[in-house]
Amino acid sequence: MVKTLLDTTVLIDILKGDKNAIGRVEEIRKIAPIYTTTVNIYEILRGIQLLEKNKERHFQALKLLIHNINVIEITLEVAESAAIIYAQLRKNGVIIDEQDYLIAGACLSNGITSIVTKNSKHFKDIKGLERIIDY
Asked: Helices marked H in the chain — which ranges?
């Protein structure tokens, strides 16, 4: 059983009712536990705060969604793993978004080797992420 993390792009698409994203995640859920991180939730909350209206409705939808997903918090172990990933990539001249180091660190420090995202290029150079599912 391969634990799988849902990146922000997937969560947003699920919240928008995207049938492709919902179907893909339901397929994965049948065979593996799914996760996300507090960083992914933060990214979505940022977007909700920028909305002109219906903030509360979107916030409630997010709460309902994450109630059904294992949420990984950013701990010292996650931060250390993220810093190692940062250093490895930086030495190879690869720079990704700051939050993606933390998301990848959360994966690796929790034994998660699979991630579902629309931004596979952000994670493709990270050793230990063996399965990057671009939907």
From this structure: 8-15, 19-31, 38-50, 55-67, 76-91, 98-109, 120-123
Instruction: Look at residue 134 in the predicted model and tell me its pLDDT.
Output: 87
- CATH H-level, domain 4-134: superfamily: 5'-nuclease (3.40.50.1010)
Mind listing the pLDDT tens digit for each residue in 31-53? 999 999 999 999 999 999 999 99
Query: How confident is the prediction for the chain on average, in pLDDT?
Result: 96
Q: Look up residue 124 and give its DSSP letter.
A: T
What backbone phi and psi angles, to 5 degrees, belong to 131? Answer: -130, 110
Check if the beta carbon of residue 5 is closer than 8 Å to that of residue 35.
yes
Would you say 21 and 10 are in contact if contact means Cβ atoms under 8 Å apart? yes
Number of Cβ atoms within 10 Å of the Cβ of 55: 13
